[in-house]
Amino acid sequence: GDSVTQMEGPVTLSEEAFLTINCTYTATGYPSLFWYVQYPGEGLQLLLKATKADDKGSNKGFEATYRKETTSFHLEKGSVQVSDSAVYFCALSVLNDYKLSFGAGTTVTVRA
Amino acid sequence: NAGVTQTPKFQVLKTGQSMTLQCAQDMNHEYMSWYRQDPGMGLRLIHYSVGAGITDQGEVPNGYNVSRSTTEDFPLRLLSAAPSQTSVYFCASKEGRAYEQYFGPGTRLTVT
Questions:
Q1: C-alpha separations of A1 from A7, A25, A92, B27, B46 in Å
Q2: Statement: residue B61 has pLDDT above 70
Q3: Rounded to the nearest 10 degrees, how much is the dihedral formed by the CA atoms of A15, A16, A17, A22?
Q4: What confidence score (pLDDT) does residue A67 get?
Q5: At a CB cut-off of 8 Å and minimum separation 6, what does A47 contact?
Q6: What average pLDDT does this structure show over A100-107?
Q7: Which residues of chain B have a CB within 8 Å of the CB of A98?
Q8: pLDDT at position A47, please?
Q9: Residue A96: pLDDT over 70
Q10: A43 vs chain B: nearest CA distance in angstroms?
């Protein structure tokens, strides 16, 4: 079945540090890949997406590239801020399947 | 647009009690779903609906019922609450062929 494996947390960083969260997937079809973010006390928001191989999703300084050869979709940000403290979820959906399959989530804390 | 709304935000139940978690969306989305979020497990799909009158089971449906009498509403019923159902519950919706799912703010349920 479809599944997502993402880097275990928690991750603690200082402001302006580089952030990377690893995500790999297995899928039976051609998945679309997503990163969702959950800020404290809130629901999930779509951060970025990529719908085909070699696509790069980007938003709010975050980037992730859909790598079909390594079945990966790692999230990166060059200089984090305290406001980036949140839980980040990698997820996939396969064409014509409504379900999102989520990774376990990675808690990121950025200290001033 | 209010987006996806959920009520209540918090709920405490005793084992064996029943209750309904409410979910509504005002975006005329065809697809709606319920997920539960547990530490270290990401989000897991409970039930979903592809339109009014149509529902189906997700990964973890046991102990939960759903119905979809209108496009806007998708309530989740706990028939006889158990401590294993202590979790945070999220409702989500999306357009039929769109990629992005929109999540509600969540309901934190504790069963004692």
A1: 20, 10, 12, 31, 17
A2: yes
A3: 90
A4: 96
A5: A34, A35, A36, A37, A59, A60, A62, A75, A88
A6: 93
A7: 31, 33, 48, 50, 94
A8: 96
A9: no
A10: 4
Alpha carbon of A51: minimum distance to chain B alpha carbons (Å)? 8
Give the A-side interface with B, CB within 8 Å: 4, 32, 34, 36, 42-46, 49, 51, 89, 93, 98-100, 102-105
- Report residue B67 as tokens: 């119905």
The residue written with tokens 């309901």 in the block is B107
Pick from B56, B65, B64, B60: which is nearest to B45 by CA? Answer: B60
Q: Which two tokens stand for residue A99?
A: 């379900």
- For A1-45, how does the pLDDT look when each residue is reduced to its tens digit (9 = 90+)? 889 999 888 999 999 999 999 999 999 878 999 999 999 888 899
What's at B89, amino acid-wise?
Y
Type of residue numbered B65 = N
Q: pLDDT tens digits for A35-88? A: 999 998 888 999 999 999 999 999 999 999 999 999 999 999 999 999 999 999
| Distance separating alpha carbons of residues A44 and B5, to the nearest angstrom | 13
- φ and ψ of B49, to 5 deg: -140, 135
Residue B72's pLDDT is 97
Residues of B in contact with A32 (CB under 8 A): 99
